[in-house]
Specification:
Radius of gyration: 18 Å
Number of helices: 6
Strand order of the largest sheet: 2-1-3
Number of domains: 2
Distance between the termini: 22 Å
Helix content: 25-40%
Largest sheet: 3 strands, antiparallel
Number of strands: 6
Length: 218
């Protein structure tokens, strides 16, 4: 069994044994829901126009010094027109959603499709914070069985995981790549706090930790 040490091998051990799935549950349960991001207020942050029922809008996760991560919503027109939070605040990630006047109609702040869109929108980023956030989001997606890890390789830049979406196989094309940013335990705890803001942490887990092997089957 992999040892949880502060070197490069412990992260690989998490992937190869499936124990990172247990780690996600432990981390999210430990921080609870105290950092919950509010649901959409139904108003565009740039124009102050109220969204119509069923309207598509852009939800952005915005990080600001001394504030942390908050959610800011924009109309599609405002977003496409370049509306963004003022510096030094910066967008960590974004996704499209449909406005629902009744927030109780949707249990989770993000459904599976929105989580995948948030993950895809961070593909190719070179921003260190976004790379870390995408990595932790990937662990959540693996837990939800939306993506799976098929292999891990070591490079001079660090570890790179090969991943497939649910339903994808090798005969449909090569896997996508996920950069392991080399987070230590404290950094993972911080990132877990950010992920807890996105999800209803009382949701029942979709997968249990597996036995050995690099692949976590969907």
């Amino acid at each position: 069994m992999a040892r949880f040490t502060r070197d490069a091998t412990w992260r690989e051990g998490w992937v190869e044994t499936g124990l990172f799935l247990w780690g996600i549950r432990w981390g999210m349960a430990a921080i609870g829901t105290a950092y919950s991001v509010s649901r959409s207020a139904g108003v565009c942050a740039a124009t102050q126009r109220a969204f119509a029922a069923g309207e598509v809008f852009v939800a952005a996760l915005v990080e600001a010094p001394g504030v942390g991560i908050t959610r800011v919503d924009y109309s599609v027109d405002a977003w496409n027109g370049g509306a963004r939070p003022a510096a030094p605040a910066a967008v960590v990630g974004f996704w499209k959603s449909h406005y629902q006047p009744n927030p109780e109609a949707k249990k989770n702040l993000l459904d599976d499709a929105e989580l995948m869109e948030l993950f895809d929108n961070l593909s190719g980023t070179t921003d260190a914070k976004q790379i870390r956030f995408r990595y932790m989001l990937a662990l959540l997606l693996i837990r939800r069985r939306l993506i799976r890890v098929v292999s891990t390789k070591r490079t001079k830049e660090g570890a790179i995981m090969s991943i497939y979406r649910r339903g994808e196989t090798a005969d449909k094309g090569p896997p996508s790549e996920l950069i392991d940013p080399g987070l230590d335990e404290m950094a993972i705890a911080d990132a877990m706090e950010q992920l807890a803001q996105l999800m209803d942490t009382d949701r029942a887990p979709a997968a249990e930790a597996g036995a050995g092997g690099a692949e976590v089957k969907a």
